[in-house]
Design brief:
globular
């Protein structure tokens, strides 16, 4: 079956999968961290930040793409750990702003949201 759009339920699954994948690979991400100091906690901080974002998502009743994205953004900001967590929260904020007012998103709108995520983080 070809997916033509992303609705809130599918975006929720995407965020759950992303959080699980980050948790499984946090040690590998930790090992990548060498700048500005090799403190080795980037993956751990990002994973903990994403877990807080998930808690906010799981508490939603209205699961539009906009609400899921903004819950992730708000949760990640509230639970941001370290610089990497703050940067992740800004990526999610930009992504959410790109989906503002939308119940579902097609590929073109998702590309716009990803671009806005990148711009916001910079």
């Amino acid at each position: 079956m070809k997916i033509k759009y992303l609705d809130g339920a599918l975006l929720k699954k995407v965020f759950i999968g992303a959080a699980n994948n980050l948790e499984k690979n946090k040690d590998e991400v930790d090992a990548l961290n060498v700048f500005p100091v090799p403190d080795g906690d980037t993956g751990t901080n990002m994973s903990l930040t994403f877990q807080t974002a998930l808690k906010h998502i799981m508490n939603l009743e209205d699961e539009s793409v906009e609400n899921i994205a903004f819950a992730a953004a708000n949760g990640s900001l509230m639970g941001a750990r370290g610089n990497s967590g703050v940067i992740l929260s800004q990526l999610l904020r930009g992504f959410a702003n790109g989906l503002k007012g939308k119940n579902k998103a097609n590929a073109k709108l998702l590309a716009k949201a990803f671009k806005q995520a990148s711009d916001t983080a910079y």
